[in-house]
Amino acid sequence: MRATSTLRLRRPALSPRVLGGSLLLTAAALGAIAAGQGLAFVPQKAIEGPLTLANFVKGTTDCFDRSKRPPLAVVDTHLHVRPFGGPPIPFPELTKMLRQNGVLFANLYGIGQRLPVQSPCTYYLNCPGEPALPSLKSDFSNAQNSLDYKESDMKLVLSMTFPDLSKADEVLPQMTLLDKEYPGMFRWMGEVNLVKQALFNNGHKAVPAEAIASWQPFMEQLQKRNIPIAIHSDLGNDKEPKKYIPLMEEVLRRYPNNRIVWMHLGLSKELTSVDPREHIQLLESYLRRYPNLSYDISWRVLYDQMFKDPAKRDLYVAFMNRWPSRFIPGTDFVAAAGKTEQVYREELAVTSSILARVNNEAYRRIALGQNYFDLAGLDAVSPPICGR
To answer: pTM of the prediction?
Structure first.
């Protein structure tokens, strides 16, 4: 009989032996674990049937078999439950859409900008000149829906979408109002707009750089509560690709201790000519300098402009593999009445498509939600990936 047995990571056929109550690992395996490159042991069997919350509890040993499941995110960290104007998809219908597509965890965004109540529009781009301004309406509605329709088989996180970042003195009083009406229910802030060029025809302007210093009171409160803030901040446009970069740099410089999520990798429909290598180099420089920064890879614009092209896509895959703990996925679906489950399914498939290419560690952390759980403070643990 052999005196010892070693453990090989990510090999499904081997099972480690336990001698004297201790598990013996090779030096290489220990090094891989210390570096976050692998799991401590190969789980015994693959999860069968649809995923449930039971697969995301601490200590689970069943594994997720990527070869037998579609590469779709099980978390939607960027879901607009309310539209800009008009009626939404009824809340029970929307949660049914999530279930039908295997989404177990979601951020319930309202919409940061509401069109006037008398407006017939549901989408701001169809109504230039109509003001689309921050409001508390959606946040109240989302909170009440989450109470009226309790969903025991999924975990939903409420997000504060009301802040007008150019009027920082209004943010804390409105946070206090939400606390009074719905105590302890909001665990996220965003999507809030630092600069969103698509809204310029609807009354939005870039937040002045000098106004960012006035955020300190509410940013301190967010830090105290461990609440992340998700910010939409365009890098620039085709005429001036780097025009607005200084705004986000000022936010990161002033608030390095806040957990900040930069939406859409800073991309937008107004910026179509960015070089992917230069873009990644810029984003990576911020990850090195600001440990509390993460990136949101939601919105099909990223696919249409970057990820659809295999040469560009592979650069972003390598980027995510280098920084697996710094990305979260989402659809950026806006739940306007009349949208069908098929529309949501397509958005989920398109925005998840790049995840089919990332390595196991990145897949577990992004598609299976561990990064999101860590940011939102959820009591959930993503299952390990089956060895291959």
So the answer is: 0.85
